[in-house]
What we know:
It is a single chain. This protein is α+β, with helices and mostly antiparallel strands. It has one domain: NADH Oxidase (3-Layer(aba) Sandwich), CATH 3.40.109.10. Helix content is about 35%, strand content about 25%. It has a four-stranded antiparallel β-sheet, with helices on both faces. A two-stranded antiparallel ribbon has the order 1-6. α1 crosses α4 and α2 (about 25-35) packs antiparallel against α4. The model has no long low-confidence stretch (mean pLDDT about 95). The site of flavin mononucleotide has 11 residues, from β4.
Amino acid sequence: MEALKVLKERRSVRKYLPKSVPKEVIEDIIDCGRLAATALNRQPWKFVVVTEEERRKHIADICEYGRFIAQAPVCVAVLCEDTKYMLEDGAAATQNILLAAKAHGLGSCWVAGHKKLYAQEVAEYLNAAENDKLISLIAIGYPEQEGNPPKKSLKEVLCWEKC
Ligand SMILES: Cc1cc2nc3c(=O)[nH]c(=O)nc-3n(C[C@H](O)[C@H](O)[C@H](O)COP(=O)(O)O)c2cc1C
């Protein structure tokens, strides 16, 4: 799909078809994540792909606003080494993953990680090193239903030269 179309048409998907995602597609999506912009080129990230149903269900049980991870065939955890810009770095990688998923005809949804009380529990469940922090979780799968939340208009948010 054309890049700008992907950017403009991506929306969070929280309902997925029961259809698995080919491994090479998942790998390509993660490849896009690891190529994101990163402060000082630290690339502090690690991406843990969880496809086993039992493991996804366990994560879904922990994440109160990510219950749909149980139904999505793929869940990606973005972890970053505890560095000054880990949140920005992890967020940039997360957004790349959402867009790459869309480009592959998949739906996805960002599930909060870092600021949540469950962040450490999820990181431990994934066997993360103590210095690796959970930044986000991303549910991915073929979309059954796509959201269409209201968006601010360009006019509301664009200023030239001054606010
Ligand atoms: C930092 C961050 C955390 C989010 N956490 C959740 C979450 O825990 N659960 C969820 O369903 N959606 C979550 N979202 C998705 C937002 O709800 C969604 O992006 C927003 O409503 C705009 O909709 P759109 O993605 O369709 O444009 C999160 C998004 C961001 C950027």
